User: Which sequence fits this backbone?
């Protein structure tokens, strides 16, 4: 492993401008990420309990195809249900013991959609599809793909679990102020308290924050349940109430963040596509209920936000195997290394890990560390030690993955 450390980045809040976006928990892309990662989490948990290890699998191509619906003020009709597709190589049998792939997928859909939307009615309008492409190839021992006994899962994977692909994964020491504001506002709008107080509002929220100098501009898209809003006038009334509430919460978030002390201007734009008689109505509180689709990798990045001015991994972690899928593991490792560098040295950092297909997980080819300023020898040594410590834990990533449910992580503002 070659570690290169140089002054090569800028703290996002020192830039003259910044921009970030957060897709809410009810957004179709967020739902796809959550379904994929929750399936992998439950598949892995079930398999570890049954076999003592996690068989080969990946489902990072989950796609949710929206319902065909007729939506009006006061109600909606569903003409075609939501189609939930699970694609990927999935070990569905160990010897004579079947792994209940379809059952796990059904349980995941039944848990994720109602929890994320706060509305279980969508389950009356879903269809499930599983397309398992698992076979045998000469790049691994045949038992890697088709273990004949529980012992095969642990023994074969112990030897065969090397980086599954050539990847470039990055992580930053922290989110910028714009991203933190977007995440904080989305979490508040889709949180239990606001949803309880404002039952007309759904969770397919999108928040965009642009900071230019000391001026902050916030754009929010907030959906309304059509059956709760009976007319354009009622919609406008609800929207006005929501605007007041969001404005107050924005001011509260700014008061809590010391980085906002220099903010001289704040503006809020809400549901900017609206025209008289036309508003953002979404069955079940999500545009998935009216034809929009969701796919893994199109939603928030591992940090919990989309920051186009930060380096971004080329990988979509959700649904990847936590045992040897480098795109999942190194994204987490890079983020952790960058975070610890900031915590332990007070230097903002961005970390990039370049790994080759087949490389040992604890020994990627290159780690590139960008620092915001020049540092002394002692700090340089500390940075390298942090990197080595984080990379050394890469092979044990599966334990970290299984420690927390993906829905909980999303609620906390992080991956997925």
Assistant:
């Amino acid at each position: 492993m070659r570690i290169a450390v140089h002054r090569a980045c800028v703290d996002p809040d020192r830039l003259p401008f910044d921009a970030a976006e957060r897709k809410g928990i009810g957004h179709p892309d967020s739902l796809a990420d959550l379904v994929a990662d929750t399936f992998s989490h439950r598949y892995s948990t079930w398999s570890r309990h049954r076999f003592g290890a996690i068989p080969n699998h990946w489902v990072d191509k989950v796609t949710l195809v929206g319902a065909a619906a007729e939506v009006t003020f006061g109600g909606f009709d569903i003409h075609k249900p939501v189609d939930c597709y699970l694609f990927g190589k999935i070990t569905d049998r160990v010897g004579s013991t079947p792994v209940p792939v379809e059952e796990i997928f059904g349980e995941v859909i039944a848990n994720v959609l109602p929890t994320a939307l706060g509305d279980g009615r969508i389950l009356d309008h879903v269809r499930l599809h599983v397309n398992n492409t698992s076979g045998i190839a000469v790049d691994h021992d045949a038992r890697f793909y088709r273990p004949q006994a529980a012992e095969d899962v642990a023994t074969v994977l112990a030897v065969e679990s090397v980086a599954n692909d050539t990847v470039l994964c990055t992580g930053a020491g922290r989110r910028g102020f714009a991203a933190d504001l977007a995440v904080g506002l989305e979490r508040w709008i889709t949180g239990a308290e606001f949803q309880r107080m404002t039952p007309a509002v759904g969770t397919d929220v999108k928040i965009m924050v642009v900071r230019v100098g000391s001026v902050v501009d916030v754009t929010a898209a907030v959906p309304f349940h059509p059956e709760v809003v009976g007319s354009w006038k009622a919609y406008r009334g609800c929207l006005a109430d929501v605007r007041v509430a969001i404005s107050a919460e924005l001011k509260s978030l700014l008061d809590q963040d010391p980085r906002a002390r220099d903010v001289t201007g704040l503006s809020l734009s809400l549901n900017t596509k609206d025209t008289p008689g036309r508003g953002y109505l979404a069955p079940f509180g999500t545009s998935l209920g009216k034809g929009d689709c969701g796919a893994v990798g199109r939603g928030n990045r591992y940090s919990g936000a989309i920051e186009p001015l930060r380096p971004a991994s080329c990988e979509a972690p959700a649904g990847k195997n936590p045992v040897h899928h480098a795109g999942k593991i190194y994204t987490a490792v890079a983020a952790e290394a960058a975070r610890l560098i900031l915590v332990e040295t007070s230097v903002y950092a961005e970390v990039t890990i370049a790994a080759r297909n087949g490389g040992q997980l604890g020994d990627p080819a290159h780690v590139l560390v960008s620092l915001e300023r020049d540092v002394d020898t002692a700090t340089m040594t500390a940075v390298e030690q942090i990197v080595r410590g984080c990379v050394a834990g890469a092979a044990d990533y599966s334990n970290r993955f299984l420690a927390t449910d993906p829905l909980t992580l999303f609620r906390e503002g992080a991956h997925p």
About this structure: The chain has three domains: 2-12+166-174+300-406, 17-24+176-285, 28-160. The CA atoms of residues 97 and 116 lie 33 Å apart.
